[in-house]
Amino acid sequence: MVKLRKANKQGIFRTLEALIAIFITFLFLIVFVPMQRERAQPTAPQNVLASLRDNDEFRNCVIQKNETCINQSIGRNMEDSYDFKFNLSDKPYAPAPPLPQKRVYANSMYLAGNTTNSTTFIVRLYFWTKA
């Protein structure tokens, strides 16, 4: 009878020890693993089109559909660590150009023409980090 009680106590202690080990492991996973994932996610870059919104030169390039001028204006305001493509359309559901298999950020801007030219355009900017 005494041996049976001693065996039961040892079994209870081993079970309790295993439960504490599982608890500590889960606590480690819950606390430390998400912190590492949060640091790895890059922050979204600034909205380049917002800075070009009030730029008359850029607006004239868009109204004239001058893609070289638009490309240069965006390139001057874009950080060097990003590549980009843009889409100029008067249709709200225009398809995106072919994009790389990376995390792609997108900005868009709706431009109305001036008093002499009443056309409207949507400029969509797609950009991603360089390889």
What is the element layout, followed by pairings?
Layout: H1 2-40, H2 48-52, H3 56-63, H4 67-77, E1 82-89, E2 105-112, E3 120-129
Antiparallel strand pairs: 1-3, 2-3
Quick gist of this model?
By secondary structure, the protein is of the alpha+beta class. It is built from four helices and three strands, in the order H-H-H-H-E-E-E. Strands 1-3-2 form a three-stranded antiparallel β-sheet.
Task: Explain the overall architecture.
48% of the residues lie in helices and 20% in strands. It has 4 helices and 3 strands; from the N terminus they run ααααβββ. A 3-stranded antiparallel sheet has the order 1-3-2. α3 packs antiparallel against α4. The longest helix has 39 residues, at 2-40. The relative contact order is 0.14.
Index terms:
131 residues, alpha+beta, 2 domains, 3-stranded antiparallel β-sheet, 3 strands, rod-shaped
**Spatial gap, N to C terminus:** 73 Å
Write down the overall geometry: rod-shaped
How confident overall, as mean pLDDT? 82
DSSP summary: helix tally: 4
Low-confidence stretches: none
Query: Which structural class do you get from the secondary structure elements?
Result: alpha+beta
Biggest sheet character: 3 strands, antiparallel
Which value, in Å, is the CA radius of gyration? 29 Å
